[in-house]
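Quick one: structure tokens for this chain, please?
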Amino acid sequence: MLSPTAHERQYAEFDIDLDAWATPKPFGISGCFRLRNESEFMVQAVESFLPWLDEAVLVVQPSDDDTVGLAEELALKHDKVRVEHYPFVPYQIGTQEHYQEPPNSVHHLVHMSNWALSRCKYSWIAKVEGDVIALSTFAGTVAQVRQNPDASRYYGLVILNLAGDGTKFSATNPRNHGWDEAVFNNHPRWHFVRHDKWESVQHWERSGENECMGWSLYHMKRCKARYRDGWNDEVYLEMTPENLAGALQNYNRRHQYPGNDDPLGESVLFEELPCG
């Protein structure tokens, strides 16, 4: 259940206006980027999506780097970019506060994420992060949206987890499951909820409205300075078709996820590497 009223009433200006959110919007795609300490790849990430977006909404949180300044520079450089300031740092996922505090607290990731979605002006939302870079295949999702503007759909996007200097990938976790990053209708019925440890967009029970679009994005988290030499004991391998095919085969023995997993038939994964 979506709770639009902020738990802390002294911050009522961060309530979510459900009536405004539910109002029909002009057709188009809003990119929604939640940004905190994302200075390493956020410019590359935002600009990679701009050709396919009608606006890019950068929801910036207090940061220890120059995320806020870079967001403001992007807004000055690109007419499509708009900055929204969210002055609270959400509880870290997995902490006691994350589990115990209500998800409509202004300090909770769920409320911040729903507030961010509600700031988008167009009828569809591309929900992505500040360390995710679009492949040219993202155009296929945009084409689906434009061909079916009034459909009720949740288009999941498959991510390749690059690593190191960008010429490697995580053999331990080569891809996401295909639903975290997505394009969906801009309406309160598609909103964030807390599922155990993680927060996700509420769409799972709506069978027939979900479609996984296959390889669409690169995730650059493991290319950040603090993870470049390794993270969570993951194995990084050189980015070759043979290495990736073998890693995906091993991975899918443990996970049955939707979306195209054949890198030998997806040359775009190797032609558009953003680093290295």
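Residues 139 and 169 are 23 Å apart (CA to CA).
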